Amino acid sequence: MATEGKQAEQTWTVEQERHAKSIEELDLHEIRRQPVVKFVTAFLIGAVFFLVPVPYQGELTVPFDIVVSTITETFPTAVGVYALAIIVAGGVLTTAARVGDGTVAGYDLSYFDTSVAFWILRLAGVVVAPVMFFKLGPSWLHTPGTGGLMWGTLVYSVGVIIPIGAVFITIFVELGGLEFVGTIARPVMRPLFKIPGRAALDSLASWVGSYSVGLYVTRNVFEQGGYNKRDVFTIATCFSTVSIGFVGVVAATLDILQLFPVVFGAYFLCVIVTAAILVRIPPISRVPAEYITEPDPETAFSGSIREYFRLALAEAVEKADEGESFLEAAKRGFVDGLKLTTLILGTILTVGLAATLLSANTPIFDILGRPLTPVIAALGIPNAETVAPATIVGITEMYVPVLLVTETALKAKFFIAVLAVSQLIFFSSVGPMTMDMFSDVPIRFRDLVALFVMRTVILVPIIAGMTHLAAAIGLLG
């Protein structure tokens, strides 16, 4: 992590190869049985855990969601104690890293160092966490839409999701999955979004698991030289998506679960369109293409679908052949996940609680939304006076806009359902998480606010058009 007052970190840049190599020009790794079995096993473990739908309590979900839900719902007190301990540890370790020589009992604490602003936020988390855990203070601090949401839902979920997800993602990534998915996705990711093909895995981890897991993958690949700063900025702000499961939660809350395929399809298209636009304009386009360690860029390649598959398999097998064992990868993933959780959980609680309290107890978002009322009305969306502030309040927490429109017309519900999950940037979790995790990029508050506004400006007319199209073909009653 970048640190104030320290010497500027060394950076590297890489010139893009002009010549795309063919399959004959590459020295492909030998395909041998043992590393193939190792890669395929790791691939299947990750795929089953994150992707394969299974029936659970009358619904279809994935094993990852079942494990996280079981832990948080069955052992809420234990999870609360764990979250409290992690947040306190984050504040203490950050303080120890900034005060003195940055070591304790010979252990290097530089990983926990950060800027003064995030040091203060982590210390604030140390103060706020006991208040939330023991339900101290006024009742309005613990309502379901503010403190209850932040502590009992978001903090608990993120605290469990990251270390557990890190175990399976590390097995998948370190034993060939990243190379395989990344190579297959190159023909799409680079020309459309100007990022490496391997970024498809970060996005996939967000879609099927959680943006927390996706950002964990991004951080790991960044530290290994697989991404430059512009790649990270793009992935963190354009592909840290809401999971498929949460889209279902949004649809169920608005009583439009029967429209889930339409809502999800519209959401998927919105993410693609906004990413393709935003990567080509500031602030993303101005981020330097610098690496924070020795670069490991993807080799330029051109070939048929079959040749891409052959290359993907060769690279995956090479990684599996050289990689660590399943147990070593799992242990390292769990430890890395715990360390990352220690960094960000206090910041998420502090910023997220402030954002939700601001939304619930002040008229600021109603005031900001008033100029949008005639715009929403002109686009033909009903209940414009309710929908307008809901288009803005999503910057605090993605779920809040949904709660505002539960009593509106079907068109308004569909519009906000798609918009809320497509805006991506919100300050109850993703905002502080990305700023703290990627302070060496850096991803700044003003950039995130600007991107939220830009995404909203792009999305509002697009989703309005989708809403009218869905109504025209009879999907909205």
UniProtKB/TrEMBL annotation:
Spans traversing the lipid bilayer: 36-56, 76-97, 109-134, 154-181, 232-253, 259-279, 340-360, 412-431, 452-476
Alphabetic keyword roster: Membrane, Transmembrane, Transmembrane helix
Domain of life of the native organism: Archaea
InterPro entries per the UniProt record, alphabetical: Gate_dom
Record-annotated Nucleoside transporter/FeoB GTPase Gate domain positions: 156-254
Protein name: Uncharacterized conserved protein
